[in-house]
Amino acid sequence: MSEVQVKEEGGGKNKQKKQHLRVDFTPMVDMNMLLITFFMLCSSLLKPETLPINMPSDAEVKEEEKNKVRESGAVTLLLGAENKLYYYAGMVENAAYSDPTFLKEASWNPEDPGGIRQFLLEKNKGTYEEIQELKLQLQEGKMVDSVFRRESAAIQEKAMKELKIAPTVMIKPSDLATYKNMVDALDEMLVCNIGAYAVIELTPGDRRLLFNKTENSNYLTEEEIALASKAGKK
User: Fold this and answer.
1) Among residues 107, 123, 147, which one has the least CA distance to residue 195?
2) Which of 36, 98, 126, 199 is most buried, by the most CB atoms less than 10 A from its CB?
3) CA–CA separation, 112 and 125 (whole Å)
4) Cβ contacts of 54-57, under 8 Å, gap ≥ 24
């Protein structure tokens, strides 16, 4: 409540009146508490969303377990230095280690025909379109999130086990890659609706492929550099 106090001062013929205005904000505090309580009870809290990542069970994946991945659908992404991205499809044959053209370089640009997104979309053709239709229904409110997740998982499982058309992507960051490269690679998995992907450490063979492609010895360990130098002298 507001209150006006008037004070008269004497001292001559001309009398001046001073007005002191005081506003009581106590009721406003009560009103603010009521509004805060109202919004807390009536508003729905945002649910935290997690990023699904298929991580290997062991710190080091055995080579025989990697070979079980279906060769026709296997795609390996190698994250290199200076924001470079390399990939190869299928499994590595012995002859590939001496062939610099085996490892392909791709750009991060989603509009680039030679970019990794266009390559993954082509590999995941069919499955991608079906899940995009589900996403559209989710955005329009025709489907709840739980149903969308269940239907998407069913489509991806069918594509992998029955139709055998879905790719299995293995992401292998090098020590020279940045955290942003890793995040960008995981984003591409979500954008392209890749159902099976895992983050795996580089193998000696992968480091050798990167070295043959870029001639950057930083990809190799000191022991591997010594062996390569010894082999070159022979």
Assistant:
1) 123
2) 199
3) 17
4) 54/196, 54/197, 54/198, 55/198, 55/199, 56/198, 56/199, 56/200
**C-beta atoms surrounding 33 within 10 Å:** 10
List, in order, residues 6 or more apart from 72 with CB less than 8 Å away.
90, 164
DSSP annotation string for 70-84: -GGGEEEEEE-STT-
100-139: b (≥16 Cβ within 10 Å) or e: eebbeebbbeeeeeebbbbbbbebbeebbebbeebeeebe
Q: Could you say which DSSP state residue 93 is in?
A: P
